[in-house]
Amino acid sequence: MNLLTYIRHLAVTGAASYYISTQIRDSKTRPSILASLQLSESGSVPFLSLLGERAAREGDTWLAESLSKHALDEARHSQIFAHALKRMNKQVVDNKLQLQTTSTNKPKQQRSPFFLAYFEGYSLEELKPTLINWDVFLGSTYILEFDSSKDYRRMAKVLPDNHLETRNLKKGLLSIAQDEANHADYLYEAMMRRMPTNQVQNLVDEWRIRKVNAMFKIANSVFEKTDETLLLVQDIERNKNNTTYS
């Protein structure tokens, strides 16, 4: 990563961290952030599961097992957020739960402006789990998992310890952060198994640059609250006849 990219990375990371930290610290905006995180985590499960099956068919047992564990972790993370919302008497709006996976990872699966920019030059067909180039998946997802680990730790840090609800959420966020770090580790190892160290570094740099550019490109939509974000959650009482999280 060159100096200019590094400076841009620090700037956009700092701004994003400030935004999400203020949103999760505020009890009024916390439900929407938790809902978006729940959708992000649950949305990646089908994609990772299909990738694991593909790796198994291709004879890479180690990668298949790692992807299977990754998918299970993401499902568990989704439940952590669902339970946190339930303690706030909230749940994700039902029609937002029906997501179609179109990308390789987190908030991540919808055709969001960020992912359109992050995967610029790649068609939706090329990003399907049955077709995606392994180097593309490994490099792009490594960056996202590595950064997510830090983001979850920052979110946990700003939550107060004087309430049971936020203490429990903090513990959950720290647990997720460790899982994300573990995911980044296995993705990096997978790259090292496939190519020389200098090629791994080049691949990581490529996707770091892509993320920085994508974040700058969609800065307004990332840092400004939208009506869509506000529609992610609803009160549980308003939908008593529907199944809620246990």
Quick take:
It is globular and about 50 Å long.
Specify the number of helices: 9
* First-last Cα distance: 45 Å
- Portion of residues in helices? 55-70%
Seen as an oligomer or otherwise, the chain set is single chain
What is the overall shape? globular
- Largest beta-sheet details: 2 strands, antiparallel
CATH superfamily: Ferritin, core subunit, four-helix bundle
CATH class category = Mainly Alpha
Strand order of the largest sheet: 1-2
Quickly give the structural class.
mainly alpha
Number of strands: 2
**Spatial extent as radius of gyration:** 18 Å
Strand content: under 5%
pLDDT averaged over residues: 85
The figure for the number of domains is 1
Report on the structure:
The chain has 246 residues and is mainly alpha-helical. The protein has a single domain, classed as Ferritin (Up-down Bundle). The protein contains nine helices and two strands; from the N terminus they run αααβααααααβ. The chain has helices at 3-25, 30-57, 61-87, 113-118, 134-158, 164-194, 197-217, 219-223, 227-230; strands at residues 90-92, 233-235. Strands 1-2 form a two-stranded antiparallel sheet. α1 (3-25) packs across α5. The radius of gyration is 18 Å and the shape is globular. 36% of the residues are buried.
Comma- or semicolon-separated keywords:
246 residues; mainly alpha; Ferritin; two-stranded antiparallel ribbon; 9 helices; 2 strands; globular; disordered C terminus; plasmid
